[in-house]
Amino acid sequence: MAFSAFVFVVAFCAASLIGVALVGEPVVWVFLAALVVAVLAVMSIHIAMQWEKVVVLRLGKFSRTKGPGLYFTIPFIDQIALSADQRVMVTGFGAEATLTSDLVPINVDAVLFWMVWDAEKAALEVENYYNSVNLAAQTALRDAIGRASASEVAVRRNQLDEELQEVIEDKTSQWGITVLSVEIRDIVIPESLQEVMSAEAQAEREKNARMVLAEVEKDISSMLVEAADQYKENEVALRLRTMHLLYESVKNTGGTVVIPSAYSEGFSDSTLDALTESLKKR
């Protein structure tokens, strides 16, 4: 608007000065002619911003794309079909109460990052490229949710982003639009289902914990069987192990241990001497 006003004022003043100089005096028709020239100048001289690409039609047919900067058109012959913004666009879209494959209604919010790379296709292949991209994204999101279960939608968020980007890109590439990325912002699952899924996840974790504990018990039992076989073949080792356990018990508790008379025979001097001699022979 500011540029058009500037062009209008400059063209009107220039045409008026030229007309007065040619006629020799200011008359009404000179100013009327200057007004017409100013209007034609506004219709002919345009400016496009750095991020804009302008599609120009001549007599209804595609002529050229212009911009950024200054460009010119022929009044009543050339028409500006589209001024495409080629910056990265951010569009929020969502799917409310969409049924998953297991018939669970969920709400999903997502963000689409895209840009126009071919202004000609964006002007000629689709009526309103901005609304079309938004609708295509919503449709792709609903289709993706309908093919997955509620748990898959909640867990496979990254895979869902990639799938949406591929599907939307396949549609919008025909319109001269490329999809940079799709990001799922929020997934809302009904509260009643959240409790059920939480209980299911807790049961699954408890199951895994029990399986791990069973594997550990199995390993421990195998080790005990092997140790029992070793002690069975070597009575000296068994007595030494018994003494070691007793020592550790007294050391950790700091108390005293009452040893039965029959059990204490294993700790007599004669017995210890026999153990020592046995160990030397080995």
From TrEMBL:
PANTHER family: AT06885P-RELATED, BAND 7 PROTEIN-RELATED. Belongs to the band 7/mec-2 family. It comes from the Bacteria. The chain crosses the membrane at residues 29-49. Keywords: Membrane, Transmembrane, Transmembrane helix. Pfam families: Band_7. InterPro entries: Band-7_stomatin-like, Band_7, Band_7/SPFH_dom_sf, Stomatin_HflK_fam. SMART domains: PHB (SM00244). It comes from Slackia faecicanis. The keyword DNA-binding does not apply. The keyword Cell membrane does not apply. This is Band 7 domain-containing protein. Residues 43-201 form the Band domain. GO terms for cellular component: plasma membrane; side of membrane.
